[in-house]
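Troubleshooting log. The previous structure file for this entry was overwritten by mistake, so regenerating from the original sequence record. Sequence copied from the archived sheet and checked twice against the printout by T.R.
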Amino acid sequence: MDERKIKTVADISVFLSGTDQTELRLQGSKDDIYAWVERALNRFRYGKLSKKEKGIVLNYLIQLSGYSRQQVTRFIARYRETGHVRRRQRTVNGFERIYTREDIMLLAEVDRLVDSASGTTIKVYCQRAVFSNMK
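Regenerated output below.
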């Protein structure tokens, strides 16, 4: 199938009426599919379509991308806001790291020196080491 031959919303309607709902999906990475969705929205000038035509384009995007209606609706909302449909990479760690690697290594060393005593005992040793130097 040459998807570039589909140039109008009427072509999409003909295409959707002739395909089984589970038969056809785009192949490629998520980034490729996001880029395809953006190109399709640009090609059909989604913002200038009527409500009925937008529904047809929405069904077309759902059918070929393999994403749910909610996800494609989010793509369209992002396209309206920014003009692009791009993946947002989330690599934020949910928790701030309190102790550095050196702190952890020192604590392990103290634990080894006191022969794996209880946590309370190790805490007392650490407090003595820190606060006795302050006096």
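The helical segments are 9-17, 30-43, 51-65, 69-82, 101-113, 119-131. Archived copy saved in two places this time.
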